[in-house]
Design brief:
Blueprint: H1 29-51, H2 53-61, H3 71-88, H4 98-106, H5 113-121, E1 128-136, E2 139-144, E3 150-154, E4 167-170, E5 172-175, E6 178-181, E7 186-188, H6 193-200, H7 208-223, H8 238-253, H9 258-275, H10 282-297, H11 305-312, H12 316-330, H13 334-339
Antiparallel strand pairs: 1-2, 1-4, 2-3, 4-7, 5-6
Helix pairs in contact: 1-5, 3-7, 6-7, 8-9, 8-10, 10-11, 10-12, 11-12
Amino acid sequence: MKKVKRNMPCPCGSGLKYKKCCGNTNANLQIIVERELKQLQKDVMEFAFTVHKETLDQFLHQYSFLADLDESAQKISIFNLGVWGVFSQPLANGGLTIFEDYLKENESSILRSQTKEAIQSWKDLVPALLRVIDIADHEIHFEDAISKEPVIMKMSMKREGPFIGDYVLGFPIKVNDHREFFLQFTIYPKKLIKKIEWALKPFSGETKQFMKEKFPQFLMNLCQTNERSPKAIEWANEMEKETAHVIEKGLLTEGHSEVFISWAIGLWQSYCTKKSPIIKKAEAFAAALEYFINSVSKSERSVSQAKLAKKYGVSASTVSNRFKDIEAVLKEELDQYLEQLPC
């Protein structure tokens, strides 16, 4: 066998020069494997968004709630949905996941047995929302928010956290004798705990399998922890903003919670984004939206169009016409909106 020279690529397939990999007699094998696995995480996602770019774009496009998020939340959600899709959905030819397709094409180049064993375990990758219970040297003790199981992850606490009580969303993977997050993770500070508990409420009693099968539903609910308020949203014009304030005031007088009102403002924002309505009287749209919310949520507070017309100072026929338009615009995605409905 031809001798490997120091500056040649290492035959183990790490992509490093031989002198910096297996040819480094001072190198710790565990460190080398960890380095390879970190590179493989990047390689898998690069493969996914190049070889399967069109498929992934179509896959992500079906989740219309992404369009309602601010830029930061949208990027985080696209990353998480992308990883979930790559590892758990049969998006490649032959019913394979994109990750399985990557292994099919590249597994022969992964020569080190420890690296191969670890990456094979990624086939069972499942997203997790974890709550920080304790912090030790270079590891954090979590509790899985869904299954309530204890989880220990190798990671260092940085200035921005996570801190005890915070929630962390990510994809735990096996790396040598420990677990860490796949590429990146998202911290939800403990000040959001009430809203996160609301987001988790519909999934009480579920198992990890739920997260593997219905992660988009969970993520969509979790995105509602970023409370919508008329002031926080960039509206297309002043009349859209004024209508949002009227909706907020009208629902407050009915005793609805802040979370419920946030959800309602989200409906109004979605309608405005899709329709770009011409608004002459904000109260007409506010009355119609409140009637729409009562009708689709089957609320015990349900009232007639005539009563809402009187409440907002408009005619019942105007409420009826605006309601029909809102219903037509939001009808296609009604199931998704109802999944986000606060309990």
